């Protein structure tokens, strides 16, 4: 089927060279899955008409019976003398919200996605227009956490990709585009291209805050977000023990090196809160994230207890932070602290007046 895709693209002219796209050398990857043809192109000349190129590719590929719709991803290039990769269109991404906050961790298994989802719900509770972008392409969690595992796929209109909505939060996720049991087997350019599309082509509307649920680690997606999006700051999630904190330090260092403010650290599973007696038990220790925040000079945003209610709600597609109780209050306090730090980090610099 790949040969048929290449053959169809022979009718499309590469706007940079004029040669047929199939032989121009710009195709980095091409794939067809579940009726969706995904094409990854290498960067072209500055100023090329990307809109016209996408339209021509779409017309050529959808003429094939097996292709229902297309996704065209154009890789970025490092502009001469620039410190960051620029979008292929050479136009910077407009901020999709007043605040864009990445929620990150150095490793998996610390409950980062659960924290991100509940911070979003807490922001809604605080009266903010909120969105969540699930940037974990290989392991998307948003459909489960928001109770949308049976939701239809994302739709694209003239205004852009239309996000779904649950619990008052607008959201996009790769989980809405693939089956629940289907792995995403993509190379790095396709992954980073999808992230850029989520950032730049979603019709978010007028958001107060967009929370980005980052994948664990310090790889391609982290760099794509850090270098290609107007990030207001990052929240680092860790559990208390040293094993998790060792990797959390690396995540903090990545964003620090890309000049993105560390808004603070959240300690998840800080203690087990017994649902019967209400007494806390420090299963993983306690205070490790607070101590690390002090060490790197970042605010400590709060402790999230380990509680059966949180696990049950997450599995059922309910968000604890949308309700009441001690766990909901913990998320509200963390969200309030996060917003306070985001406002401080993005406060305009005062004008300097020089007097004679």
Structural overview:
The protein is α/β, with parallel strands linked by helices and 356 residues long. The protein folds into 2 domains: 2-74, Fe-S cluster assembly (FSCA) (GMP Synthetase, Chain A, domain 3, 2-Layer Sandwich); 97-345, Rossmann fold (3-Layer(aba) Sandwich). 32% of the residues lie in helices and 22% in strands. The protein is built from 10 helices and 14 strands. It has helices at 2-9, 50-62, 112-125, 142-145, 188-200, 220-228, 242-257, 288-296, 308-316, 326-345, and strands at 27-33, 36-41, 69-74, 97-104, 130-134, 155-157, 160-162, 164-166, 169-173, 207-213, 233-238, 262-273, 280-281, 300-306. Strands 4, 5, 8, 9, 10, 11, 12, 13 and 14 form a 9-stranded mixed sheet that branches. Helix 7 (242-257) links the parallel strand 11 and strand 12 (262-273). Helix 3 (112-125) packs across helix 10. Mean pLDDT is 81; it is low at 77-91 and 351-356.
């Amino acid at each position: 089927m790949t040969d048929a895709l290449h053959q169809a693209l022979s009718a499309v002219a590469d706007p940079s060279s004029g040669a047929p796209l199939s032989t121009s050398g710009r195709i980095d990857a091409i794939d067809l899955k579940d009726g969706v043809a995904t094409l990854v192109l290498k960067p072209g000349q500055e100023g090329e008409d990307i809109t016209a190129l996408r339209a021509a590719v779409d017309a050529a590929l959808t003429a094939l019976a097996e292709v229902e719709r297309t996704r065209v991803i154009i890789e970025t290039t490092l502009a001469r003398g620039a410190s960051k990769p620029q979008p292929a269109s050479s136009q910077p991404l407009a901020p999709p919200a007043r605040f864009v906050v990445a929620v990150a961790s150095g490793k998996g298994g610390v409950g980062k996605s659960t924290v991100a989802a509940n911070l979003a719900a807490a922001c809604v509770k605080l009266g903010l227009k909120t969105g969540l972008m699930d940037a974990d392409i290989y392991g998307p969690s948003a459909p489960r956490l928001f109770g949308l595992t049976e939701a239809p796929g994302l739709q694209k209109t003239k205004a852009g990709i239309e996000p779904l909505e649950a619990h008052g939060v607008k959201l996009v996720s790769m989980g809405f585009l693939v089956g629940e049991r289907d792995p995403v087997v993509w190379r790095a350019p396709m992954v980073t291209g999808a992230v850029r599309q989520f950032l730049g082509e979603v019709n978010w509307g007028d958001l107060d805050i967009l929370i980005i649920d980052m994948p664990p680690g310090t790889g391609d997606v982290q760099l794509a977000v850090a270098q290609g999006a107007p990030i207001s700051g990052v929240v680092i999630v860790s559990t208390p023990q040293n094993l998790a904190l060792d990797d959390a330090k690396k995540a903090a260092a990545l964003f620090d090196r890309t000049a993105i403010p560390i808004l603070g650290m959240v300690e998840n599973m800080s203690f087990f809160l017994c649902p019967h007696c209400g007494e806390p038990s420090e299963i993983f220790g306690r205070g490790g994230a607070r101590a690390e925040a002090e060490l790197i000079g970042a605010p400590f945003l709060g402790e999230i207890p380990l509680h059966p209610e949180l696990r049950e709600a997450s599995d059922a597609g309910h968000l604890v932070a949308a309700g009441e109780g001690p766990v909901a209050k913990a998320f509200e306090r963390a969200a309030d602290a996060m917003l306070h730090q985001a406002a401080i980090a993005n406060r305009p610099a005062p004008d300097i007046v020089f007097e004679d």
